[in-house]
Amino acid sequence: MFPRFHVSFVHLTTSAAAVLASTAFAGAAQAQAFYLQEQSARGAGRAFSGEVADTGAASLWWNPAAIAGSTDAEATVSAAAILPKGKVVDNGTLIRRPSLPGLPAQTFAPVGGNAVSRDPINNGVLPSGAFALPLNDRVALGVAVTSPYSFTTNYETGSWARYGADRTHLLTIDIQPGIAVAVTDWLRVGGAANVEYTDASLSNALPNVLASLPDGSQKLEGDGWDLGWSAGFQMHNAHTTVGFSYKSAIKHTLKGDLTISGLVGPLAGSNTELSGVKARFYTPAQIILGVRQRAGGALTLNAQVVRYTWDKFDAIRLGAPLNTAIPENYRNTWSYAGGLDYAVSPKLTLRAGVQRAITPTRDGERDPRVPDANRWNYGGGLSFQVTPRFGIDAAANYVDFENETIDRVTAAFVGTGAETPIRTSGRLEDAHAVVLSLGGRFTF
């Protein structure tokens, strides 16, 4: 559930006497790991169970074929207020600080600090929007603007998790321009580019050689532009729509600055400022299959399954002068959703749905920045057509996370005489989120 831009340390050069380590991203997502799926208030109402097979601009993020054959220009805007709650609890995290010349060797000891960190993820508002413009009765152009990986998290000063996580901020803006064609009366196809901007910053505490000394600190920040693609199709008849899409993995390259300060004694030489540090990582591809089935004059049933290739997020690779890689070892996972739309009247449609999503994080490799867990997402919502040209969508979701272990072994100052191993042992407990979504749809 919680985000990570994890940093451990390696010795760089004797002349620089600097340290750095690795970086990893994650987020307080309501889909999986650090992916946010709240890109449509209409979709939220049925727990994202029919988006790849539905039509109109509101489904563009999931399937660029969704606007093929449209007759009117359409714009949609949505905003989701994400309100997460939960606590991250220390279950005996240990640290072994380095030994000093002439003194007895130090042994593993409790990390200390506040043993319960409550609500480290900030509340936030996630905006999104899309626009579709038909060129004729078969071809349409469209663009969706979304933020699929975004969060801010704050652990309090003195938290037991301080060496793995302090303050983390991640913002992505995905611009998806595309084209869709109704090849026949029953087949629609589409393709799009995904131009994605990423901005990230993080900080965490660094251990000095004695527990009695104040902690040092580290801050890493950077940004970059990257490119991916999406393609999909839909097959329609009078009662059934089947949709399929593929959203590519994206290789991200961030370039930024690293600042290390507050280290004293034998570690003081590691205080440094580096610019031009590059971090490279992948966000996963998505393979999406869904169906919408009319079950009567007013009822439509929805089902959707998504395969996430999270194994792409296998490591964070850092360029010169660091030239190292830190394993993440995420696993490929699935989400499954079912839901319904019920047209009460020509103006009012009610929705409901449920989604099950499996975490890509593994036992033994989960840390305080991403104590992610399997979750259930329960949704309900409605659409109301205010005028022939304007309608509103509203939804509420409750996301229930399972309790999960936080159990990763890391180390500061790896490969140096000051190497400081940390055996993280904690637990995610009582975690859940409420998501409130509101949107508007306009035709021209």
The ordered H/E elements are: EEHEEEEEEEEEEEEEEEEEEEEEEEEE
Shape: elongated
CATH class: Mainly Beta
- The CATH superfamily is known as Outer membrane protein transport protein (OMPP1/FadL/TodX)
Low-confidence stretches: 1-29
What structural class do helix, strand and pairing data support? mainly beta
CATH fold annotation: Porin
Q: Which strand order do you get reading across the main beta sheet?
A: 3-7-8-10-11-12-13-16-17-20-21-22-23-27
Output mean pLDDT: 89
Spatial extent as radius of gyration: 24 Å
Our count of domains comes out at 1
Fold and architecture overview:
By secondary structure, this protein is mostly beta strands. 1% of the residues lie in helices and 55% in strands.
Task: Name its key features.
444 residues; mainly beta; Porin; 14-stranded antiparallel beta barrel; four-stranded antiparallel beta sheet; 27 strands; 1% helix; signal; OMPP1/FadL/TodX; membrane; cell outer membrane
Brief overview:
The chain is an all-beta fold. 1% of the residues lie in helices and 55% in strands.
List strands and helices in order, with pairings.
Blueprint: E1 10-11, E2 19-20, H1 41-44, E3 74-90, E4 94-95, E5 109-110, E6 116-118, E7 124-134, E8 139-146, E9 151-154, E10 167-182, E11 187-206, E12 216-236, E13 240-247, E14 250-261, E15 272-283, E16 286-294, E17 299-308, E18 315-318, E19 324-327, E20 333-343, E21 348-357, E22 375-387, E23 390-401, E24 404-406, E25 409-412, E26 420-423, E27 426-443
Antiparallel strand pairs: 1-2, 3-6, 3-7, 3-27, 4-5, 4-26, 7-8, 8-10, 9-10, 10-11, 11-12, 12-13, 12-14, 13-16, 14-15, 15-18, 16-17, 17-20, 18-19, 20-21, 21-22, 22-23, 23-27, 24-27, 25-26
Pfam families: Toluene_X
Keywords: Cell outer membrane, Membrane, Signal, Transmembrane, Transmembrane beta strand
Protein name: Long-chain fatty acid transport protein
